[in-house]
Write a structure and sequence with these properties.
Layout: E1 18-23, H1 27-43, E2 51-56, H2 62-73, E3 77-85, H3 91-110, E4 114-121, H4 124-130, H5 138-156
Parallel strand pairs: 1-2, 1-3, 3-4
Helix pairs in contact: 1-5, 2-3
Length: 160
């Protein structure tokens, strides 16, 4: 029996073009996610000139802007950042669910990694924790996922 080969991305072969699409709603939290994402990309060798940041009103608008960025800029990866905080109405479920579903669909449609750094939390305190305090910075984590996927996909070569 032949051994199963293992393939995984790394954080040294991450050169490429990255687009960060940011929902401005809850900007007091989201701004920290953007800082974390950019810092991670640059620290791992991505040229700052190869990072574009696109701002949209909120999480609801993220998928359309991500789609347009994929069509126009042809990036190696997209990082979607935002914060949806639960309120007293079902609005939270609709926005968060639709955004997540659309981003997943776009990733497959364009065969390009879309790292989902959209926080879906129950309170502002949870959002702050995930934007750089107790629970780390989810923007930085999304950037790490994007870079790992760029590296991994380079292993497989060109498009089919």
């Amino acid at each position: 029996m032949q051994p199963i080969s293992q393939v995984e991305g790394n954080f040294t072969d991450v050169d490429g073009r990255y687009v960060i699409v940011v929902g401005r709603f809850n900007h007091h939290v989201v701004d920290s996610l953007v800082e974390g994402a950019v810092d991670s990309l640059v620290r791992h060798g991505v040229d700052a000139e190869h990072i574009d940041i696109v701002h949209v009103p909120g999480a609801w608008e993220l998928p359309l802007a991500v789609k347009r960025a994929l069509q126009v800029a042809s990036p190696d990866a997209v990082i979607a950042l935002g914060a949806v905080i639960r309120g007293g109405t079902p609005h939270f479920e609709h926005v968060a669910g639709s955004c997540n579903t659309a981003l997943g669909s776009l990733q497959l449609q364009f065969d390009t990694p879309i790292a989902n750094g959209v926080l879906t939390v129950n309170s502002i305190e949870q959002a702050i924790e995930r934007a750089g305090t107790k629970a780390g910075n989810k923007g930085a984590e999304a950037a790490m996922a994007a870079m790992e996927m760029v590296s991994l996909l380079k292993h497989f070569g060109g498009e089919e």
